[in-house]
Amino acid sequence: MAENDRLHESWERVLGEQERRFPRPEAKESEVKEALRQEVGKMTGGTVARVSPPGGVAPKLPHKLEPSAQELEHMPDDRQVKFLVMMAMQDGVDKAVELARRVNSAFVLDELHDLIVDQLFNELVKRHKLEPR
Q1: Burial letters for 33-67: b for 16+ Cβ neighbours within 10 Å, e otherwise?
Q2: Considering its fold, how many domains does the chain have in total?
Q3: What is the CA radius of gyration of the chain?
């Protein structure tokens, strides 16, 4: 991975934890993905179903990549999720989750969670910490 393609520090932390937890490349995919789901669940506030933040209004994010929630709402769901995954990789899961909650779509938040888990798993395979599926 090129230096400017480096993942956000929150992703690197999770990857490091999983590398320590599953030191052998032949670890079962289901076990690794479940551990990743739990870790990403912690990063996304524990529950994917909770769309609105406590108090009902999410704070405005000062963010270079962030479109307004209204702009994001006008994108198809799959594009919203792709954008949010890119945002999570560059700027951290917390920022992407905050924006996803402002869009107020349980589907988008759930898909974001699932894709982050898949991206983390694929990164472990890419780094030769797990065997390919």
Answers
A1: eebbbebbeebbbeebeebeeeeeebeebeeeebe
A2: 1
A3: 15
Structure tokens belonging to residue 118: 């898949």
Which pLDDT belongs to residue 119? 92
pTM of the model: 0.74
Q: What length is written for the chain? A: 133
In a domain, 112, yes or no: yes
Residue 131 inside a domain? The answer is no
Rounded Cα distance, 11 and 6, in Å:
10
The pLDDT score that the predictor gives to residue 61 is 40
CB 100 within 8 A of CB 109: yes
Domain that holds residue 56: 3-126
User: What average pLDDT does this structure show over 28-46?
Assistant: 86
Predicted confidence at residue 66, as pLDDT, reads 56
Q: Confidence band (pLDDT; 50, 70, 90) for 52?
A: very low
